[in-house]
Design goal:
By secondary structure, the protein is an alpha/beta fold. It has two helices and eight strands; from the N terminus they run βαββββαβββ. This is Core domain-containing protein.
């Protein structure tokens, strides 16, 4: 699986988490023990971006990108489709995620970096 990130999205992620930090693209799910009490989500959000350094539970499936290490779990994969695109909106201070057929989330926050 691959993801295309806009220039704004790449620059913002590198600025906020650093080039060597891994990130997880995760559903907001209170029942997942790895996500419980770790969320930084806004109204209308379904996904979150979580920076991490070591292994992060079920988030071991790599999403290919030339500059960043992005991971997800098998649960999220069922929503992603074939092609993922992510952009960053500076005015909203949030990311949007879409696949080939729909916008999946237009208000994704980066955990511990953005606040609604």
């Amino acid at each position: 699986m691959e993801i295309t990130l806009s220039k704004n999205a790449v620059e913002t992620l590198i600025e906020k988490v650093g080039e060597n930090t891994k990130i997880a693209l995760a559903l907001i799910n209170d029942s997942d023990p790895f996500l419980r009490d770790k969320g930084a989500f806004a109204k209308g959000s379904f996904f979150q971006i979580i920076p991490f350094v070591s292994e992060f539970g079920e988030y071991a499936t790599k999403i290919e990108h030339p500059l960043l290490e992005i991971y997800t779990s098998k649960v999220e994969q069922s929503y992603f489709g074939k092609r993922l695109n992510m952009d960053f909106n500076k005015q909203l201070d949030s990311f949007s995620l879409e696949n080939e057929s729909a916008v999946l989330d237009y208000n994704i926050k980066l955990k511990n970096c953005f606040f609604s």
